[in-house]
Write a structure and sequence with these properties.
It is built from 7 helices and 6 strands. The protein is α/β, with parallel strands linked by helices. α1 packs across α3 and α6 runs parallel beside α7. The chain starts with a helix and ends with a strand. The C terminus is likely disordered.
Length: 208
């Protein structure tokens, strides 16, 4: 028992300080795989479309892994497809989450500095709008299936994007996402009412 507890402490340290060691650790042995999976999947963060897709594929291959999830953070609505997959498997596994952390996008879907003409800029704007609408619809649909959650954190935008590629999400779009969240929390009996709204990194509005 002591040896396994020690191994768990070592894996916890390795995964928290050197995330790139995750795959080698998982393939080291059945024993490390069994201990590392709950540690690796307990706190999910969806921060890019590519990363989120890879993570979603893990749960599609092994749906029971969703039972290890305790918190989920989605940094961009562009990760909505993976968010939807996770919602499905959380519901099937009967998981009650400790925390959902959502960022309402303020990043453009394309870097408009690359447009070579006004016409190309208009086309990029049109494509960006269509892509956002699709992802937002997927995100809102996933919220309808999202399981009971104890804490909700809502962030407005990201500070990671350069100023030249960042634009505030139109108010109508924010309202669409906020309304979907408001509807979802009505089905979370365990929600703690001092969950909060974050402007950048600073708390500015309490959700009641």
């Amino acid at each position: 028992y002591f040896a396994e507890e020690l191994l768990e402490n070592i894996l916890t340290y390795a995964l928290s300080t050197h995330p790139s060691t995750a795959l080698p650790l998982l393939s080291a042995s059945k024993r490390t795989n069994r201990i590392a999976i709950p540690l690796l999947l307990s706190h999910i963060r969806l921060h890019t479309r590519e990363h989120a897709s890879q993570l979603a594929a893990v749960f599609e291959r092994t749906p029971s892994y969703a039972s290890n999830i305790r918190t989920v953070r989605i940094d961009s609505i562009k990760c909505a497809e993976a968010f939807s997959v996770i919602a499905t498997h959380l519901a099937r596994e009967g998981v009650k989450l400790e925390r959902l952390d959502v960022t309402l996008d303020n990043e453009r879907y394309y870097d408009y500095r690359s447009a070579s003409s006004p016409f190309e800029l208009m086309e990029m704007e049109k494509d960006a709008h269509a892509d956002w609408e699709k992802d937002a619809a997927t995100f809102c649909d996933a919220l309808k299936r999202w399981p009971d959650t104890q804490q909700l954190i809502v962030r407005e935008g990201s500070e990671r994007a350069p100023a030249q590629t960042r634009a505030l999400t139109p108010l109508a779009r924010k309202s669409m996402l906020q309304e979907a969240l408001a509807e979802a929390i009505g089905h979370w009996p365990s929600l703690v009412r001092h969950s909060h709204f974050v402007q950048g990194c600073r708390s500015s509005l309490h959700v009641t």
